[in-house]
Description:
- The chain is mainly α.
- It has two domains: 1-185, Growth Hormone, Chain: A (Up-down Bundle); 216-405, Up-down Bundle (Growth Hormone, Chain: A), CATH 1.20.1250.
- It has 15 helices and no strands.
- The chain has helices at residues 6-28, 30-36, 41-69, 72-91, 95-123, 128-155, 162-179, 202-213, 219-252, 256-283, 287-307, 311-325, 328-339, 344-372, 375-403.
- The chain is globular and about 55 Å long.
- This is MFS transporter.
Amino acid sequence: MKRSSFPVASGLYVNYLLFGMFNIMLASHMSFLTEHLHTDQAGISLLVSAMGFGRLFTLYISGVLSDRYGRKPFIVAAGLLMAVFLVGIPLSPSFEIAMVLAVLAGVANSFLDSGTYPALIEAFPQSSGSATVLVRGFISIGAAFLPLMIIFFMNHDIFYGFSFFLPALIFGLNAIYLFKMKFPDMRVQAPKEPVHDTSVSNVEQTVELKANDRSKPRFWQEGLCLIVLGFTGPTLLYIVQLWLPTFGQQFIGMTESESLRLLVYYNVGSLVSVFVLVIVLRKWIKPVHIILIYPCISLLAFGALLLFKSHAAAIISSCIIGFSISGVLQLTLTVMSEFFSQRKGQITGFIYTATSVSYTVIPVFTGFLLKHSQISSVFMLALIVNVVGIVLAVFVNFRYSTIFPSSRKLSPKIALDPE
């Protein structure tokens, strides 16, 4: 890892720590915002969908433009736009203005993703998997801290808007910091020589590469599966982040503060997972295997959450769900870049466009389910989506074993060459 990239990377990770708060801000203030904006839970879900809408229709083009004009302009603009959203929502005089701000926040989200992930891969080409997974870790830190901050403000009768204003201020200051930083060269390439096994001869490497040419990645097979995984993973994440407190209150009988703490447990599990992934990805396991193992774990945890109706089961299941969802989306992007040596911004655009569809559709659909059914139906949907993700991951692993045989001595990071 290049030490000269640490100052830029620190600013990028701070953005995602704040994004962890930003991402659950509306769900965590459900009761306050329904009263302030004169709406209901379905209305707040619509705001979340508006964010997904803004993200959906700008993410791919922002990825292409990020490849052309650089990462910095989009990352700086994202921080400033998110600050505008966070200041504007508590002060919004109407639901309609809040909708406009939500769309703007979605645009900011697309700018942030299309700039940050390529920048991290360029900053740490030999450790790109770990660098992108750490994003999930910082998101988890922010998401775990926000409910505690909200509970503190509630207990001290402080205006709820301050939990919006504080991250907005830091977003703005960090945007100024990153504007002054020098970003890594966009033309950086991953190393061409073996990383883990230096005993492999050049002749053996050449034979293996030629054998690999006989089985090429197919976009309409594993590529499409990975894009759909870019939908299923965030769907599970959004269902939990948006509805876990409601599930705790309505299905288990928790108080509001107890249900908010479920998000803390969820994010603690997520944070633990990130540290585990950073270790195991370096030596023992490949990203493509994680995107199959983790959904299998989360399926069991969602089942336990629905089956065992108790406080203890909810806490344990929330931790395990956080652990098993964390990093899957980022590793899906890493696996996509292993299969297809395309431009990093465009690859990010493919995966995160599918993610944006999830962000747009799922809040509205789950809000509809909750309006006409019970909260348990929302988590039954999570079970179904989880099973679909497992099926897709099985196929991707099969194709990976065909294209990159397990006997290969070359590091899989060679395939991360973006050019």
